[in-house]
Amino acid sequence: MFNRDLVLKQRAEILHALCSSGSTEHLERVLDKLLSQGELIWEEYQNIQVQGRALYTNVRQLLDLVYTKGEDTCEFFLAAVKQVLPEAQGAGITFSGCCSNLEKTGESQSTSSQTLLTQRASLVTKLQACIDGALEALVESGHFTSSDCDDVLLPIHTPSQQARRLLDHVRSKGESAAKCVLHYIQESESSLNQEKWTLSKEFSKYQKKLSSSVSAQSCFLSSYGRTSHMPLDEIYTEAQLELANDFADLSGALDLDDIVGAAGTVNDEADTVLVSGEAGSGKSTVLQRLHLLWARGVSLKGFLLLFPFSCRRLNSEQRELSVQELLFQHCCWPDKEQEEIFQFILDHPHLILFSFDGLDELKQGFSDEHMVCCPTQRAPVNILLFNLLQGFLMKGVRKVVTSRPEAVGPMLKKHLRKEVLLKGFSPSGIDCFVKKHHRDPTVAAKVLESLQMNTALLGLCHSPVLCWIVSQCHKELLGCGEGSPQTITDVYLMILQHFLQHQSPLKSTMGLGWLQEHIKVVLHLGQLAFEGLGTSCYIFTDTDLETCYVTEKDICMGFLILSKDMSSTHSKRYEFLHVTMQCFFAALFIVLSNNTDRSTIHKLFEPQNMKGTRLSSNCFMGCIPSSDQQEQGLEGESVIAETSNLQITATFVSGLLSQRHRSLWFHCCPSAGMEKKVRQVVKCLSKGMHKHFKSIPQPVQGEKKSMHAMPGFVWLIKCIYEMQECKIAKDAMSKLEVDHLKLTYCNIGPVECTALAYVLQYLRNPVGLQLDYNSVGDVGVEQLLPCMHICNSLYLRNNNITDEGIRKLIAKGIQCDNFQKIAYVLSR
Ligand code: ADP
């Protein structure tokens, strides 16, 4: 099809793609490119880009113009649109046929004014880093008046718009002004390259103050609580980092420096790098390590200032703040010359780094509704954060944000520079962590030996938080014998017992009475955790503690730690050792308390059904937005984040209600109530599974019946595994009739492999199991062995499996009658 036809036929789609963000940026960048190519003349540009007119009207005007200009202009236009739109936004548009090369031709331009046009796109980018200096040069040389400057710097303009305004003004002033600005840009580029900044005394002082505060905040791991502060240097163990996008040549291991570095960049224009990983995979710790290395001048040397933020803490900021206030009040206060220091930050965005830990914990889900571009404008902190991540605010400042993967939707993804996945410890990482945790080599060797003997536990240790718990409880572990932990719930129960008995060793009760002895503490903390989850609350004030009867003695148990707060203006606040610990206590409360709503379990297992109903917060409702908000597309990503915590809690509830633990509750609550809760959970799991099976489409004739797992399927499997009751697994699997089970891109690591193998072994007929693009690894391979007899084929491409892992699979495969095929790609 001709390009002209493509423009005409796709008018609505192109219009939507260029306007849907509400920002004029895409249109302006397309115009820059068309001007550069000489496809538009200056007057045409001015007729399209009418200030104050609706964006849609401007884009329509451009569509009309390029269409009337003919085939060549349409080709350039489509090529420009393709380059400017993020991949996802341009996905629905056909660009085929547009093969124009929009790179500048390198022809020498006869005048500076012409250069301003032909290099407009790159000049806009360059000017953003030095706009104030360029204006000063233009004023000094008499080309600009102060009202020209004011017009350029109007706070409603984004930095790129300011750059364009400047170029437009310069053009109207003639050749000499154009020469002046080009000269300035060239000069400032070369001085930037030589890294010549003259730092004032006050700036250097501030830099020192900030880095010593960052160092103090990051040198200890807080999860070791009040009992023992573990220096990060002593315990930090390399975790596995991978690029989310499939870069064949970069599939090897990434270093910490690569998080901020150029490797794997998918969108050069974006500033935000996302580090994603499951709860407990070590996101905060990796960030903490980066902070520490920066503060010591070892890493991230190109950044003069690093501002670390915790989204959990930002939740408690009720005031509206400007970016300046956010930086100085939440990170580090300059003792003098605040304005000068902030101006330096504005003038040198590429020398500044912001980090935001735990985006999933922010109460408000990501939204691009409210635009703020001016760094001195006050706005609610979440709005500032969203504008920073999108690059509307502080363009050019690199931002690193961590989150659980579910909490980052397409709305934010389109603003990402790249995404790095955190995949927990490798087998050698587990080894290394245990050795660091236990200085005594004989103890470390014993712990490692017991892990090797219990492959389910070894699989769990792939997750750093579980590896820490297991190492922390080594005495219980080594003394466990037969009752050695198998499930995540077992591991958390082990640490519960460890902490409770650690605090009162003299009274320590033998046998199963330990829970009964501490039931009050467990219920108080459980209520706090439960109500916190319902209101997305992870930091608790004294009043919150009082409401749930949490006493000083309860705090001393070590499950709650003092919340670090760099601004230190607040009174004491507490948080759970880790968010998964909060989920565990919430689950204990649901299981042990008689005070929860009768429908709590039902709601917990079907969080998606909670949309649109308004119930009290202690039934997990505070976190779920009302249906009308949903319709407007607001808060969608926060629902997903909350669902993830509810799912973790539901997994623990399943585990706690397992037959294996019922004797533990025997003295603590009436067994009739407990039986009822068990029946409720079993019913929910069976219903959940049934829903998935119902969604399996009938196969096309001659093809195999295939199920592509929907989100939630792996979670249900994990819940069934936690219950450790083969009858439930058998019942669930007896209804699954497929030839092919597809679980690609499902975040399946070793922990999930253990659960899958446990449940799938009860399938009635052999299946093809497709696990491509997960993080099974060699540890996960071991976990899969028990279900190989029910697999006729196994797909494990892009799973970080080595020769040794494949050797084990093949050795097992040849013993299984049904097993026919294995597909894999070895990791280097
Ligand atoms: P996330 O932020 O992904 O939820 P955290 O960084 O809070 O996970 O990790 C949970 C716990 O796991 C930490 O408190 C620490 O004990 C342990 N941990 C995580 N990553 C590492 C690491 N790289 N080295 C040593 N311990 C780690």
From TrEMBL:
CARD domain: which residues?
Answer: 1-83, 108-192
GO molecular function ontology, one term from the record = ATP binding
Q: Which GO terms describe its biological process?
A: innate immune response; regulation of apoptotic process
Entry coiled-coil feature ranges: none
Cellular localisation: Cell membrane; Cytoplasm
Q: Which Pfam families does this entry report, sorted A to Z? A: CARD (PF00619), NACHT (PF05729), NLRC4_HD2 (PF17776), WHD_NOD2 (PF17779)
**Statement: the UniProt record of this protein carries the keyword Calcium:** no
Keyword annotations from UniProtKB, A to Z: ATP-binding, Cell membrane, Cytoplasm, Immunity, Innate immunity, Leucine-rich repeat, Lipoprotein, Membrane, Nucleotide-binding, Palmitate, Repeat
A cellular component term, taken from the record's GO annotations:
plasma membrane
**Database matches in InterPro entries:** CARD, DEATH-like_dom_sf, LRR_dom_sf, NACHT_NTPase, NLR, NLRP_HD2, NOD1/2_WH, P-loop_NTPase
Taking the first listed entry, what is the main subcellular location of this protein, grouped into a coarse class? membrane
Q: Does the keyword Lipoprotein apply?
A: yes
Q: Which domain of life, per UniProt? A: Eukaryota
Provide the NACHT domain boundaries.
271-407
By what name is this protein known?
Nucleotide-binding oligomerization domain-containing protein 2 isoform X1
